[in-house]
Amino acid sequence: MDLHWEPQRVHFPEFATPDTKRSIWRAKKIFAEIIHDITALEGNPFTLPEIQTLLDGVTVGGHKISDAEQVLNQKNALLHLFKLVESGEFQITSQTACVLQSIAARGEALKLGVFRDGPVSISGTVYKPPVADLEKNFLQMAAEVAKQQNPFAQAMLAFLHVARTQCFWDGNKRTGRLLMNGILLKAGQDIITIPANKQLEFNQKMIAFYESGDATEMMNFLSPLQIRDKF
Fold it and tell me: How far apart are CA 41 and CA 118, in angstroms?
């Protein structure tokens, strides 16, 4: 795995009695809010009320078609994730990651459902993501993540690996967050979502993480963002 962290410095959320059905139900209760959080981090101008309207099947005027499609893509990606978890099919595999990316980044990525095969850069940092053996790196990450006893550590490390490695041409953070929340839901824990009002702090901490490869601060940033306090 291309990152490191200091376990003794990370303060994970309290581990709740596992209940996958409850955790999915709670995520669905704030479904529109979660999608707004995801799309706001991508610079999408749709407001929460507009997203609620669009999810209800009513078109919203004054926006680009591509912005509306991005919102609906996140809806479909989350619903697919819930389906995988509910059916017991969710696993951290390259196939799972590719399918989720192909839904979340539809209409945006150069290629869908395949690992990146060329160089990319990340705006705001001099860090250069690797190019070769991205699927192999992903599988190594999955094996290392599986060794972690704490599902929150597993989840966050999976997200941060996909984001820093830039496994795909686009949709890496979205795909990584889907994998993160799939791990949490499978473990019967509430998901983590990054509120729109945390966008600046998130971006700043991600830039520092990209350059250092030290996941400690990002993990501490993510820990309080579990949705449990919303209920």
Answer: 25
